[in-house]
């Protein structure tokens, strides 16, 4: 058989003379040496688009390289783990190499999340990484990320936890480049940052209820305001701006705990804890579902938007010994194991609503060629009661009216892992594009 002869010919054919054999072996040896020498130099420029490598390895388990030099461009090569691996199910494991920035090296940390500056006594909460059950999740590589998003733009649409996420990413990217402020307004709720070397822009759009909202009473039943939510109306502060972006990261959750009055077709249909006569309490879940439905509808109705929509799922708070405005606090210093707690009650209901509305929007968006992706952070963040600022968002002697913060996340801290998730998803999407 010809194939058999070819495989064994150099050593098995005794009629071959050394005169014929040596040049061929020499040629093969030279080619091997050149391949080994050139491949490592060429790889960073190929990045995740190297389809030949991907086709060869994409079915095999991920191989994680040593991360000693976390700033090396070629480190953390594209993951090749089985695509069916659920990167969102796993455990937090120690990571002595963290953090990858500090409050002294990053100016983007919001004061209320600057836990180390304001005296948090422990530091173990910054020394963990997320380990999926069936594969590995590489630590965020800022060089890879900026190469992938070169010439593109990303919008963070939602509440202050979404802004918290963007600030985390700015800090992680600071090892490569600092962005310049290209905001259209001085309003801190609508910021735009550009990375000139990569022509990459990030923006944050403040819309805590996702739909058009108006504050009806600054005090309200719980002294935190009463809001009118127009559940079938777009919030044009973001819906008229995001169609130019390549990626939209949508989030929302904690503002729906506050008192709300629900409007549909310009009429009151119910409320959540509004305590108004003759207005039925439809619960926060009604407003939450309708708000996400309208937000997704707004995106799917954009004529010129051709990008990818990421839903970053609800990140539970961790108040103990009281609710958020009645003395609740979060003083734990270690993550939970997955068998020590579970998603239930209100957290579970909000999470399921998000998934249900996401699937509906994904089906509709697919008809227009849009991509919807789920950054499913809920389980991972449920296990991190130790990652919140608590009372370490201001000086102890300051006269402030802030409650213990068990909603947002310290920086550096657990939500740096959200960038690990996002980069891995972008790489896998690049792999699928290269293979197809």
Automatic annotation (TrEMBL):
<dbReference type="InterPro" id="IPR026057">
    <property type="entry name" value="TBL_C"/>
</dbReference>
<keyword id="KW-0735">Signal-anchor</keyword>
<keyword id="KW-1133">Transmembrane helix</keyword>
<dbReference type="GO" id="GO:0005794">
    <property type="term" value="C:Golgi apparatus"/>
</dbReference>
<dbReference type="Pfam" id="PF13839">
    <property type="entry name" value="PC-Esterase"/>
</dbReference>
<dbReference type="InterPro" id="IPR029962">
    <property type="entry name" value="TBL"/>
</dbReference>
<feature type="transmembrane region" description="Helical">
    <location>
        <begin position="25"/>
        <end position="45"/>
    </location>
</feature>
<keyword id="KW-0472">Membrane</keyword>
<dbReference type="GO" id="GO:0016413">
    <property type="term" value="F:O-acetyltransferase activity"/>
</dbReference>
<feature type="domain" description="Trichome birefringence-like N-terminal">
    <location>
        <begin position="83"/>
        <end position="136"/>
    </location>
</feature>
<feature type="domain" description="Trichome birefringence-like C-terminal">
    <location>
        <begin position="137"/>
        <end position="425"/>
    </location>
</feature>
<dbReference type="InterPro" id="IPR025846">
    <property type="entry name" value="TBL_N"/>
</dbReference>
<protein>
    <recommendedName>
        <fullName>Trichome birefringence-like N-terminal domain-containing protein</fullName>
    </recommendedName>
</protein>
<dbReference type="GO" id="GO:0016020">
    <property type="term" value="C:membrane"/>
</dbReference>
<keyword id="KW-0812">Transmembrane</keyword>
<dbReference type="Pfam" id="PF14416">
    <property type="entry name" value="PMR5N"/>
</dbReference>
<comment type="similarity">
    <text>Belongs to the PC-esterase family. TBL subfamily.</text>
</comment>
């Amino acid at each position: 058989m010809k194939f058999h002869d070819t495989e064994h010919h150099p050593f098995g054919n005794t009629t071959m003379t050394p005169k014929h054999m040596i040049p061929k072996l020499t040629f093969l040896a030279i080619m091997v040496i050149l391949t080994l020498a050139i491949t490592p130099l060429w790889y960073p420029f190929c990045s995740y688009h190297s389809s030949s490598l991907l086709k060869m390895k994409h079915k095999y388990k991920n191989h994680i390289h040593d991360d000693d030099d976390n700033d090396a461009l070629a480190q953390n090569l594209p993951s090749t783990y089985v695509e069916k691996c659920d990167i969102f199910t796993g455990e937090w494991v120690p990571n002595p190499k963290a953090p990858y920035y500090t409050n002294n090296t990053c100016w983007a940390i919001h004061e209320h999340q600057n836990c180390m500056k304001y005296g948090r006594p422990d530091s173990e909460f910054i020394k963990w990484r997320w380990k999926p059950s069936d594969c590995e999740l590489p630590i965020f590589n800022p060089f890879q990320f900026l190469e992938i998003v070169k010439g593109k733009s990303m919008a963070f649409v939602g509440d202050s936890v979404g802004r918290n996420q963007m600030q985390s990413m700015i800090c992680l990217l600071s090892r490569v480049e600092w962005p310049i402020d290209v905001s259209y307004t001085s309003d801190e709720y609508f910021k735009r940052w550009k990375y000139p070397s990569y022509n990459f822009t990030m923006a944050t759009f403040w819309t805590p209820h996702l739909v058009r909202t108006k504050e009806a009473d600054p005090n309200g039943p719980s002294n935190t305001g009463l809001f009118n939510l127009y559940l079938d109306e777009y919030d044009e502060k973001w819906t008229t701006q995001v169609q130019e972006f390549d990626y939209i990261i949508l989030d929302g959750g904690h503002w729906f705990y506050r008192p709300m009055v629900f409007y549909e077709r310009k009429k009151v249909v119910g409320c959540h804890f509004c305590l108004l006569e003759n207005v039925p309490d439809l619960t926060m879940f009604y407003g939450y579902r309708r708000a996400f439905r309208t937000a997704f509808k707004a995106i799917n109705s954009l004529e010129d938007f051709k990008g990818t929509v990421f839903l970053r799922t609800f990140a539970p708070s961790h108040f103990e010994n009281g609710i958020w405005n009645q003395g609740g606090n979060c003083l734990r210093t270690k993550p939970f194991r997955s068998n020590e707690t579970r998603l239930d009650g209100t957290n579970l209901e909000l999470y399921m609503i998000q998934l249900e509305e996401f699937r509906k929007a994904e089906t509709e968006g697919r008809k227009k060629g849009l991509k919807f992706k789920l950054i499913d952070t809920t389980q991972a963040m449920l296990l991190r009661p130790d990652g919140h600022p608590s009372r370490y968002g201001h000086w102890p002697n300051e006269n402030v009216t802030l409650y213990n913060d068990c909603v947002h996340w310290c920086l550096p801290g657990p939500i740096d892992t959200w960038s690990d998730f996002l980069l891995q998803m972008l790489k896998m999407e690049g792999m699928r594009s290269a293979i197809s």
